[in-house]
Amino acid sequence: MAKSKVLVVxxxxxxxxxxxxxxxxxxxxxxxxxxxxxGLDIDKLQMLLSFKKQGAHLLEGSFNxxxxxxxxxxxxxxxxxxxxxxxxxSHNISLQLKLVEAIKEAGNVKRFxxxxxxxxxxxxxxxxxxxxxxxxxxxxxxxxxxxxxxxFTYVVANCFAGYFVGNLSQLERLTPxxxxxxxxxxxxxxxxxxxxxxxxxxxxxxxxxxxxxNKTLYIRPPGNIxxxxxxxxxxxxxxxxxxxxxSISAQDFLASMKGLDxxxxxxxxxxxxxxxxxxxxxxxxxxxxxxxxxLYPEVEYTRMDDYLKIYI
Length: 312
Prior knowledge:
- It is a single chain.
- This protein has helices at 16-25, 42-53, 66-73, 96-106, 132-147, 161-164, 196-206, 228-239, 250-255, 262-275, 292-295, 304-308; strands spanning 6-9, 30-35, 57-61, 78-81, 111-113, 153-156, 159-160, 180-184, 190-194, 215-218, 225-227, 244-248, 289-291.
- Helices cover 36% and strands 17% of the residues.
- The strands form 4 sheets. It has a 5-stranded parallel beta sheet, sandwiched between helices. A 3-stranded parallel beta sheet has the order 6-10-13. A 3-stranded mixed beta sheet has the order 7-9-11.
């Protein structure tokens, strides 16, 4: 079967650049939307040009120009959107509704993968304010996709290692703490962590797979389901250093939200659901859902002890 042509929207972003790389690596004809909105952002432009050197095609388009989006979408069989959904960077989830309209009008897309890649919004109906806005917006996009009868795959990739592993899941830092580490409760809630390059590999594997059509794909390999305590232990073994552990109760953790800006409050809410409630692992993967490592056992995904070695 011929490989699908892939259009990546948000290709210069944190996950998007990896999706472009994986798509090219797996032999897909790959297009990247070059948005007029980048203006004088030279870093984004140079990244786009580097994609071009690697064989990707750049398509000019704008979310303020519906016709340009339709024309871009018509070039591809599969559209993958990776626009940011985190508030401390940029938050563009709802912009995808314009992309849905373009896909609907173009009429040629065989699969749309919207910007998800984190927690499953379908399971977050009782999420705390203000962080629930992320899930509400993603669900609004899902509804628009399904109302338009657009074939889809929703990718749930859980915790990005770059934001949750190198820092031992500490807020407000990205590298391992030197002396002390804060534990969420007893630190024994199971969490799913993923290397971002592996997320991209699994995602591209899924785009032509009939088993993932109109389903949610969880990227939750068993070897990367760890508690925070286990993650800290891996770091201590690698570094040869013992850290002081300070436990934070759920009540005190939620109280820390007071006085934070909007992005900070969103972050605390999401951490609460992950590390106190166990929202990533407190259920079995059931009907209408697939798990990536089961579908693609040939992918040698990165274990978190290997991931942590770069920080030594």
